[in-house]
Amino acid sequence: MSETVKFTIDGKECIGKKGQYIVDAAAENGVYIPVLCHMKDVIPAGSCRVCTVKANGRNMAACTSPVEEGMSIENNTAELLDIRKAIVEMLFVEGNHFCPACEKSGNCDLQALGYKYQMMVPRFPYVFERRNIDATTPKIFLERNRCIFCKRCVRMIKDAEGRSIFAFKGRGETLEINIDHKLAANMTDEMAQLAMDICPVGAILRKEVGFNEAIGTRKYDKKVIGSDIENNHQ
Amino acid sequence: MAQKVTIEPVTRVEGHGKVTIHLDDNMNVAQSRLHIVEFRGFERFVQGRPYWEAPVLVQRLCGICPVSHHLAAAKALDVIVGAGTGHGLTATGEKMRRLMHYGQIFQSHALHFFHLSSPDFLLGYDADPAIRNVIGVALNFPDLAVQGVMMRKFGQEIIEHTAGKKVHGTGAIPGGINKNLSIEERDLFLHGADPLNIDKMIEWADSALQFFKGYYMQNRATIDDFAHFPSNHLSLVRKDGALDLYHGVLRAVDAEGNKILNDVDYQDYYNYIEEEVKSWSYMKFPYLKHLGKEKGWYRVGPLARLNTCDFIPSPMAQKEFEIYKAVTNGKPNNYCLHTHWARLIELLHSAEIMKDLLNDPDLLKTDLVSKGIKVHEGVGLLEAPRGTLFHHYKINDNDEITMANLIVSTTNNNEPMNQSVNFVAKRAMSGKAEITEPMKNQVEMAIRAYDPCLSCATHALGKMPLDIKMYDAKGNEIDHYKS
Question: What is the spatial distance between Cα A149 and Cα B293, in angstroms, rounded to a whole number?
């Protein structure tokens, strides 16, 4: 049996496992901390920082920081909520996100966080960067305009031999998500669907099946992102 | 001294436009033009997008009739995904789309009659513009105003339950639809509390039609005299000649009723129709190729549809169609203001069709999509509220759209609207010492009869630079703006 630790989130007493990341431990205690790059049971990347919390007085990424005995975590403070909102806004202005015609609308984590934090208009200027689309693989339409560089696909979508089908190329401003054409040629429909599902935005689209989920049946049509975690522990 | 009269903006139409009327030294109308001053770019920026995105993206052309664009694009993509045209879909797929479409026709026609055109009839075209509007109608004819609002609401609810949202839904997908109708949804429309049930909608649609007929009988000379001129008429008709607003073959008749386009497959529309670009408008001018630019222009919309079809496949509307056709002895109707009458017959027809569909058990089934062998090109046509709507797409091997051509209803009516403006301007203004507001409103009424959607109609990009020239009475250029 793993060793347990006691900590608090916004004053609420919580119990977690030693070494467990704050974001996962919080979820098990009914506390939602937003994530875009993090996926449970996958090695964390800590790249989006939307999960920023204040742990023992210091800003930390909740997806890369383990809980510690007696740790005091701040989550829903005005300061942190504004930081998260600012991060969401930056992600919106950095890419080219046009929700009205995006098939991920309603299933999109970024859009859902935009609604959650009541983003009306971003405080930063739009970059309107020109990004290329890669539609040359048989199963995947890679829409780079929407990529937020979370690296979920790179970490999770692998072929039978463990090779990543997606990879980053370049650095800084030239960084872009790429797909290995040889490996992608052998992707199954299930793998393509999984890649689309784990993408927190609409950057990875499975070809030819767009918009087959009716409005009203999509993930965030009727509930706010994170509400399932919060409601499960009421 | 020569003068130019400008009417800007043209009111109670969808979108932004202006009219210029040039008067000569004797205050006679020398030339009138409807200018479309909006600028859009959908044909260009849809290029490179995945083809399945087109029905959702392109419908953003418009907030009034997005369903028409949504469905026309989906119909074009049915061809691309190998589902064929018209009857290639599953029964549920086609009938859900039809319900969505007739709901759209119903709400749009109700909107036009009650909100946009009725102030001219109920309050008088020469009434004070401060009250000659939907608020004036609401104050003076509250029952009618409520009917207008509730009929529009009913149509919008039908759209929401078929497309997912009242405006800009996602229901139609290549090869079918993404939802069926539940029993609860169906019963809501069939047996909902008054007034939001289909029987009340049929009753109100009929009563609006009877109101217009009564108005017509009292003002027949004025209505008939207003902008009547011969023209060709074009629309889809069902293969047996019935009025069908969702699918059919292309038919055009001339002013005498002779078929000049004989029930052709619309997949080949570009063999029959061409578009001309003119320097003074962002809207193109389509015409029938074999008749040429001068003689090949045509009208679309309710007036044209009731001129091309042989009958209406719903009993109440068919009865009204017979009364309507008797006015012109069965010949094509070329009276501009009779468009309102035709529109109200279609309003009634739409309500009857919706009732038939709602009683059809196919709407409740779950076989939603059909697909076949993919091809790289597809054309989708339907009869939008304002007339025939053309969507044409080509894709490459990577599923990206490489070409889009849209001929929007209002674009089809470009030349007829200019003809109507010219007709009314000459009749109302020539030789008058003063150009009054009611005179200007008559010009607007001529445009309004077509229920133009100027936002939809200006979707092209990169084909026409903004270039404005002003001329005096002697034809000398006195000002020139070029973008």
Answer: 54
